[in-house]
């Protein structure tokens, strides 16, 4: 870490919050540097010498950590739920509860969900300008519309604008009468895949994210997690460097 960094960037690098969330902590007067409350944005600190506290607890630099989880259906992307529903953090190790999830999957969707304490990289991955590819598999039931691939690749108008998958493939599903539609999208819009299917009157049996950027779900079983390897983390950083 460089000798002087912005305070919000330092906080994000420790996994306390995203960079934007760290700005909120500073604004709310919950951050002290060397015993003094700091509420001004843009303050720079020396992470090797400055004593930084959030809500009275010292925050220290920590190595970047990345976790891949195979999210289960019917789990929500939050640390806790007032209604007592299961969350994605219930399937992680207790040491990983401080990590924040990179984007979301809706409650009924399953598949690849990334967690990290590397706020800068996570924020960059989610920024629309980066156009990081996400690959999904939609299991459908019933007859698909004619020329489905051409229709999707030419674009479908949704309430928030045109949605145009970068790549579409269709193959037979695991059960009689089912198909799997594979989509690659780059925008990360809310529930985009389900809205695309609904606009084309396609019944969705299951929705799974199988890749996010260079990271693949692979054979990771539902409800299990693994740490990303050094090569995968380098691939993430290389991708962001090339799309910056």
Written description of the protein model:
It is a single chain. The chain has 244 residues and is an alpha+beta fold. It folds into three domains: 5-59, Roll (Structural Genomics Hypothetical 15.5 Kd Protein In mrcA-pckA Intergenic Region, Chain A), CATH 3.10.290.10; 66-128 and 215-243, Alpha-Beta Plaits (2-Layer Sandwich), CATH 3.30.70; 133-212, 2-Layer Sandwich (Pseudouridine synthase), CATH 3.30.2350. Helix content is 22%, strand content 30%. The protein has six helices and 17 strands. Strands 7, 8, 9, 10, 13, 14, 15, 16 and 17 form a nine-stranded mixed beta sheet that branches. Strand 13 and strand 14 form a beta hairpin. Helix 1 crosses helix 2. The longest helix is centred in the last third of the chain and has 14 residues, at 230-243. The chain is elongated and about 65 Å long. It starts with a strand and ends with a helix. The mean pLDDT is 91.
Shape label: elongated
- Given as residue ranges, the uncertain stretches (5+ residues, pLDDT < 50) are none
Total strand segments: 17
Structural class: alpha+beta
CATH superfamily of the largest domain: Pseudouridine synthase I, catalytic domain, N-terminal subdomain
SS element count, helices: 6
Which percent range fits the helix content?
10-25%
In the CATH hierarchy, the third-tier topology of the largest domain is known as Alpha-Beta Plaits
Q: Provide the β-strand percentage band.
A: 25-35%
Mean pLDDT: 91
Which CATH top level class of the largest domain fits? Alpha Beta
**Rg from alpha-carbon coordinates:** 20 Å
Question: What does the largest sheet look like?
Answer: 9 strands, mixed
Span of the ends, CA to CA:
20 Å
CATH architectural designation of the largest domain: 2-Layer Sandwich
- Structurally, how many domains make up the residues? 3
Order of SSEs: EHHEEEEEEEEHEHEEEEHEEEH
């Amino acid at each position: 870490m460089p000798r002087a960094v912005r305070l919000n960037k330092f906080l994000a690098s420790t996994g306390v919050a995203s960079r934007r969330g760290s700005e909120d902590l500073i604004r709310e007067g919950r951050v002290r540097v060397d015993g003094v409350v700091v509420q001004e944005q843009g303050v720079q600190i020396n992470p090797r010498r400055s004593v930084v506290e959030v809500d009275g607890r010292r925050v220290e630099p920590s190595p970047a950590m990345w976790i891949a989880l195979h999210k289960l259906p019917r789990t929500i992307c939050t640390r806790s739920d007032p209604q007592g529903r299961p969350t994605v953090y219930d399937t992680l190790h207790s040491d990983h509860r401080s990590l924040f999830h990179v984007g979301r999957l809706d409650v009924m969707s399953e598949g690849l969900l990334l967690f990290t304490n590397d706020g800068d990289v996570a924020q960059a991955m989610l920024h629309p300008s980066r156009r990081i590819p996400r690959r999904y598999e939609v299991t459908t039931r019933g007859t698909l519309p004619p020329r489905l691939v051409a229709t999707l690749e030419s674009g479908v108008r949704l309430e928030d604008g045109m949605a145009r998958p970068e790549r579409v493939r269709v193959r037979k599903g695991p059960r009689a009468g089912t198909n799997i539609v594979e989509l690659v999208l780059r925008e990360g819009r809310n529930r985009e895949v389900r809205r695309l299917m609904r606009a084309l009157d396609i019944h969705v049996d299951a929705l799974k994210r199988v890749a996010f950027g260079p990271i693949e779900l692979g054979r990771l079983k539902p409800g299990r997690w693994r740490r990303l390897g050094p090569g995968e983390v380098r691939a993430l950083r290389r991708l962001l460097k090339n799309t910056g």
